[in-house]
Amino acid sequence: TGTPVTVLGLGLMGRALAGAFLSAGHPTTVWNRTMAKADALVARGALLAESPAAAIAASPLVVVCVSDYDAAADVLQGPLDGRVVVNLTSGTPSRARTLAEEVARSGGGYLDGGILAVPEAVGTSGAVLAYSGPRPLYDAHESTLGSLGTGLHLGDEPGLSATHEMATLVLMWGMLDGFLNGAAILGTAGVSATAYLPIAQTAIDTVAGWLPGYARQVDSGSYPADDGTIDTHLAAMAHVVEESESLGVNAELPRLLRALAERAATAGHGASGFVALVEQFREP
Ligand code: NDP
């Protein structure tokens, strides 16, 4: 049998996590505020604890997945002697650092983590879980945590996982809003979103292919206009804003994109490549 694990919080995600540990053969103790949510797991062999403290006492590794950090801090009240807490609740980097300190004061070790997957994918290699916190703690539990999916250790600083989550959410929302905005523009021409798909997907694949070169420019701080200048983009942005306004669709996103490029041009980057915009995102 594998290392015993405890899972605190049996919402949609917590139940998937506990289920994956059971499938991998780990003796699994569970606790949830609403006890009935443990029924199916208990039927599969999980042990139901009567309190968070009893659940924490049962295993060296304690996985927490509740709604927010206030709830996580609540369930982790009390002694944590020698326990390693892996908090998979979503939150901010500053809350991750605070909770790491609270856990240390209670005698526990702390890893923060983000789940880049839906509950159905948990337990498969397609589920990526990104962890941050002391490397030795991660190494000690890497194989047990491997039952949940593909694990990545991002670094020792506990807030790193939440910082990556923030960055990735902004990336995904930006792309998704761009798709929805494009679908609204095409809707005025009677084109369905489904009909737009082949071109939209190709555009996202194309942009994904540019990322390695963009990343090098961001990291080096030099933005040669290899493909086009910010001034050239600005002219196209002005057309999209004007046309959106005359079509009567929302023009906020095109206006924001134009405003950022205008500021970059004013800052002297009109003849630079698109990556010069990164400087606009570094300012408040
Ligand atoms: P659910 O709403 O399904 O579950 C929330 C869980 O938190 C329940 O177990 C609930 O208990 C518990 N809870 C809430 N408040 C308290 C409290 N004050 N004290 C004790 N327990 C509490 O959410 P999910 O399981 O979907 O999400 C949990 C975390 O996982 C979130 O941070 C979410 O962002 C993250 N996540 C979820 C993903 C998903 O696809 N679902 C993907 C990636 C991350 P009770 O049952 O009693 O209400």
From TrEMBL:
Occurrences of domain 6-phosphogluconate dehydrogenase NADP-binding (ranges): 5-150
Database matches in InterPro entries: 6PGD_dom2, 6PGDH_NADP-bd, HIBADH-related, HIBADH-related_NP60_sf, NAD(P)-bd_dom_sf, RedAm-like_C
Keyword Oxidoreductase: yes
Record keywords, A-Z: Oxidoreductase
Residue ranges crossing the lipid bilayer per the database entry: none
Pfam families: NAD_binding_2 (PF03446), RedAm-like_C (PF21761)
Domain NADPH-dependent reductive aminase-like C-terminal: 157-282
SUPFAM superfamilies referenced in this protein's UniProt entry, alphabetically: NAD(P)-binding Rossmann-fold domains
The keyword Metal-binding appears for this protein: no
Similarity-based family: Belongs to the HIBADH-related family.
Protein name from the UniProt record: NAD(P)-binding domain-containing protein
Organism field: Streptomyces albipurpureus
